Amino acid sequence: MQHVFEVATGFGLCGVAAIIDRFDVGRPEDRVLLVANTVPATEASPAVHESPEYAALLSRFGRIVSLNDLIAPEHPFGWSPAPDTHHARLATAQLLAACGIAAGEPHTLWIESIQGTASQSLARLFDTARIHIYADGLMTYGPTRIEVPSLIGDRIDAVVHLDLVPGHGPWVLREFAPDYRTVPVEDLLAVLGEIGGIEVAGVDGPVSVVVGQYLADLGLLTVEQDALLLERMVRTALAAEPELPVLVRAHPRSSGRAVRGVVDGLVAEGHDVRLLPTGGLVETLFDALDVRLVVSCFSTALFTARAMGIRTVSVGAASVLRTLRPYQNSNRMAIVLADLLHESVPLAGGPIRPAETDPAMVDLVMAVTALSMQPGVLEHLHGANDERVLALPAPRLAVLRRYVSTERLLRLIPGLPRPTPSLRRRVRTRAARVPALRTAWRAARRARAAWSGALR
Predict the structure, then answer these.
(1) In this structure, are residues 406 and 398 in contact, taking their beta carbons and an 8 Å threshold?
(2) What pLDDT digit, counting tens, does each position of 250-304 carry?
(3) Class assignment of domain 2-192?
(4) Which fold has domain 207-345?
(5) Considering the entire predicted model, what is its pTM?
């Protein structure tokens, strides 16, 4: 039995290596590493199998194939041969030959996400393969955001995922009822011991680490909000552990100039804030240094650090959640879990809210969030959580309403009573009907915004 592993990132390759070690997937000569370099400028970023830091992991595979070389000049990000065409049949033959799979030979395709363009194309073109989805990140905990054809879905045997939320299972592909198998985070850490770490000079003693994200590039925040988010992360780390230096690890795709501007501004104020290189996996840093605190928005690094016993704080997740579009965005569940399971701070600042510790509440928030995202796909599960939601006391129901709006809850759970509007809301609603009061209220709101900006 041949096993073809599609990999696009270093983190994905480490996840695949952990899966192979955990489940003893075939012999090395039966494993094929199919590398897709999905970055926009492939000539500027080496593919994962060309990066020296991951060289030690390649011995697990008997054959390495570059998808980029196979389909050039097309790019994996937009590569999607139309089904039942001559182009698709040629692509299938080319893929099987490159992977050393003979006609009629049984094989398994391991793809990182059924929701990515390249992964969908591979699942369609390897048309006789049994399919395993391996998931190294948080999006697997949310429902499937695309309609998966039954010709593909019926061939999906398993979803194998890193156990980032222990005790709670993924929602992706539940409509096809695959086997869900977990990989302990400890297995990933063992693999990370084989690869090169982030080089850090002059660090002696405990530190805090801020893990940046590139939310402006994803359209989730404006450039100004993204810079404010990074600054708020650093200030949160400084306030939470005031005696520790803060190491800032920006996302490789974020604007280096913007990150440097934030760091330089904080250094000018007298804070011990240091900028790290962007190469390598940040988890190697957690293992190599005495990291006491990790701060981010909704990075997977929060969850790996939490699994390693490191204190974690999520910053600004609620603000990103409010503006996330479309509602079915695959990041929604990741943002919810980041805000729910870690200590959290609003983007505007304020006291740290403690993490949720009730597993039943976490399970309910995940279930209702998933149903609110994909009520049609998960139609067979409607009503499954009604009794639990209706039995929630007001403080617990308020936790659920942080993540799923009242209107969506009312659509999902018809018996849920509509909350009584607060006095402030009733006054605002009535004032909005009086032109003079409406104008005064808008002027006051503009004045507050200007004052807040001046203070910042």
Answers:
(1) no
(2) 887 776 778 999 999 999 999 999 999 887 889 999 988 999 999 999 999 999 9
(3) alpha beta
(4) Rossmann fold (3.40.50)
(5) 0.88
